[in-house]
Amino acid sequence: MSKFVILIITNFLSYNSVFAQGETNTIMSDTLVFNAGQSSDKIITDGNLMFKTKVLYRGLVPSSGPAVVGNFGLMYKHFVLYLYGASGFTSKYPAEIGHYQETDINLFYYRHKWDIGFNYYYNYTSGITTVHEPTGIFNFDPETARAVLDFIARIRLGQANQWQLLSSTYLWGPRDSKGDQKLDEDGNSIPIHGDQRHSQYVEILKSWHIDKNIKIKTAIGGSWAWTSDDNSTFYGSKPGINNIELDIVRYFEVAEEFLIPVKASAVYNPLSDNLFVYFTIELIHNTKIEH
């Protein structure tokens, strides 16, 4: 299991587990959403731990089987640092691809109506790239590294921030490249990463409450590449819409002031013509605590 997942569980179990509905129309997500724009001279912590029947990312499938996903974050003034960890229970198809494991490091500057920041993604899963085995989360060799550095900008609209516009640009990352080959000292061909494509993803999202216990989110996103000689991107073989998503969250009260949210999601990727349905249960939500 990912070291960060263990770290997250340890931190969560040290707190009282209470889920509190936010003041805005944000929805249960793999991304921590602090009360955007709040500022404090103290360090504020937040986090969650979820069980997912599969893991989807912008129309792609990092894990086709069940996984545990967790976040743990710190906020000081308007700066947010948080960690994302995930570990799958089964191997992804095809069979040569191993168990899903991922660790992400995220740093953002938050305001009430916008935020900007960087996501550093690292996927440990065997067989998912030209370089089949992980070579270390802080390996920056362009031929063997597997990380992606993503620049994120978000704008929130509406009185309750129910509309969101997102821009994601891969600034660096050998995973965002075309596969290539080179010869080793013995003249054997070995796989390496090729030229960077600088994939771009944009998304518009709308979320709202049906009543106090039901939330809905819809999103549509598309992608292209800034520097791809064949128009391929991280998300597919050509530009286009790669993520159409519908999420429905229902909050179940299992005890007084203790709610467990369950999310049903349907995701359609027009580029690959794949439809996915999966479920998420938020097992633990650590409310914001000042230190």
Question: First CA to last CA: what distance?
Answer: 29 Å
What fold name goes in the CATH topology slot?
A: Porin
- Give unreliable regions as ranges: 1-26
Mean pLDDT: 81
Give the CATH level 1 class. Answer: Mainly Beta
**How can the largest sheet be summarized?**
12 strands, antiparallel, barrel
The H/E string reads: HEEEEEEEEEEEEEEEE
Structural class: mainly beta
The strands making up the biggest β-sheet line up spatially as 1-4-5-6-7-8-9-12-13-14-15-16
Describe the model.
By secondary structure, this protein is mainly β. It has a single domain, classed as monomeric porin ompg (Porin), CATH 2.40.160.40. It has one helix at residues 3-13; strands at residues 44-52, 55-57, 60-63, 67-76, 79-91, 99-110, 114-123, 148-157, 163-172, 177-183, 189-196, 199-211, 214-225, 240-255, 258-269, 274-290. The strands form 3 sheets. It has a 12-stranded antiparallel barrel. The chain is globular and about 70 Å long.
Chart the SSEs and their pairings.
Layout: H1 3-13, E1 44-52, E2 55-57, E3 60-63, E4 67-76, E5 79-91, E6 99-110, E7 114-123, E8 148-157, E9 163-172, E10 177-183, E11 189-196, E12 199-211, E13 214-225, E14 240-255, E15 258-269, E16 274-290
Antiparallel strand pairs: 1-4, 1-16, 2-3, 4-5, 5-6, 6-7, 7-8, 8-9, 9-12, 10-11, 12-13, 13-14, 14-15, 15-16
